[in-house]
Amino acid sequence: MNSSSVMTWFRFEGENSGDLWHSSTTVGGTNYERYFRVLEDGRLRVKFYGTELTNSQNLPNDPNDETTFRHVAMVLNEQTGLSIFIDGIRVAHQEIIDNSKIDFPNPAATTAIFGVRGVYDDFRIYSGIVTPKHVKS
Question: By the 8 A CB rule, do 91 and 85 touch?
Answer without folding.
Answer: yes
